[in-house]
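User: Sequence in, structure out. Go.
Assistant: Echoing your sequence, followed by the structure tokens.
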Amino acid sequence: MKEKFMPIFFSIVLILSIMTPISGGTKVNAEEQSVTIKTDTLNVRSGPGLSYSIISQVKRNESFKVTAVENEWIQVQLDLFTKGWVADWLVSSDEPAIETEGFSQRKEGTTTVSSLRIRSGPGTTNSIIAVLGKGAPVSILDQEGEWLNISSNKGSGWVHQDYVQTNKKESKKIESTPIEKVGTISTSALNVRSEPDLNSSVIGTLQRGDTVTITASVPGWYQIQFGNSEAWINDQYIQINQNGETNTEGDSNSSLTGKVTVESVNIRSEGSFNGKVVAKASKGDRFQLLKKESNWYQVELPDGQMGWIAGWLIEKNVNSNVEEEERATESSITILYNGTNIRSDANVNASIVKRANSGDVFSIISSISDWYEIDLGNGQTGFIAGWVVSLNDNQSSTEAPPPTNRDGTIEGKTIVLDPGHGGIDNGTTGFRGTLEKQLTLKTAENLYHKLKHAGANVILTRNDDRYLHLNSRVEMAHSNNADAFISLHYDSIKDSSINGFTTYYYHGYQKELADVIDEKLGESLTLRNRGVKKGDFFVIRENSQPSVLIELGYLSNPNEERTVTSSQFQDMAAISLYNGITSYFNE
């Protein structure tokens, strides 16, 4: 009898040990507590943080028992033998509420938009009882679906979760391990951050091949020397040099350069807005960054005098020789259209000295405003508009739209550009690995500059790689009373032979905008025009403003993927969309 009992006893002990939360998390109460997944697909990680490896994925509306809570992460029981961690902002807690020892799950937060409406119930059909301004503090009392029951100084009610930022809990400080190594960046562009956290601010970028000195590490991150300060990068995108030797030929990382990221920026006599403006710089201009005070950088101007530039208006890089980069960039242009006019002077009224065709390449002599002076050969020169060419440095041409459209027809118009997907939502993945979320953002940014230059009030629903709920995208159109809402996407289908672009609308009042944009795309793009169609997409179906959704080609088609990812296509698509939008407001 005793021999029969012992195997059963050890089996129970084994199961209980498996069900015990791992160390480091706070054990939850013994009640049956669970959470429900509230996003389509959610990564389950081996530890409480984004730097831990993904061990599984779970789907929307699946529920799991909670076994531990640590900061903003929840450990769940996936099956009898497996536990993993999920982010608490992507799940909803089932009753009874999750509680840690001595801590209630009730949270504090702040509003992220102006004019946030508090409603009497969880839904837009309920009456508005108050309006909160941006940054207003709220207490989160309960949640129903995507709606939060909050209390505020203007009363209690319901608001959508997308417009409330939960205040961060104070996290445990992770002790870093000092190391001394040299590494080489292995990805095309790597963000440099202020802290070892994906939510921390980006203070610069590194390019493939850049070398950095590593000074410390925490799980998933390396601390590096970035200019004269320290910063953090993800450890997945750096190749440690052989034997990990440090650079004995001098610190290659002490030279920090900055590239201007806005159309125009003032350079001042001191590192504050109180400084006198001593010069101006344009988008793409590069400077050696000599010294930093607060968030201002000292730079040396071409005439030798010193000045200061705001750090938030430049992109910081290391290992960049300013003179070499200036020689390497904008050295030649490629013509985008057949029959492009080359003129005797930098304006559209100057006489035509030559016509060029798509694919022709010319060397750049100089640039004047939105025009390039180019070498025509045989000692002749001419001028060509920046909006009909592509720079041969794999950067998009975003200088300006055609002057024939600069008649003020879109000046003051509010246009919301919606780059599809983002963050955890990659969208489709191309045959060659292109991520839709990255390509839509590239197209939107290119179009943004053209519309902005023409005087439009342009709003991007996202300007970086972040996840954004569909409700939030539509709300941006409504709250800003947009004159047009343009959602940009790229398509995919199992049949890799399918190709072409498609323009969608849903409501009758959206069709005119769809027709005009589709016509302009068809005039310029070499892709097959699949026409204007009615599409049941949330961002146009729920949108009360003139709205369209455009699928700008099939990433599932290898040839089309190669085409739409080229800088020439991106330029052409942005110009065509610009022409479509301006034509819509002209009519």
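User: And one key feature?
Assistant: Residues 51 and 220 are 5 Å apart (CA to CA).
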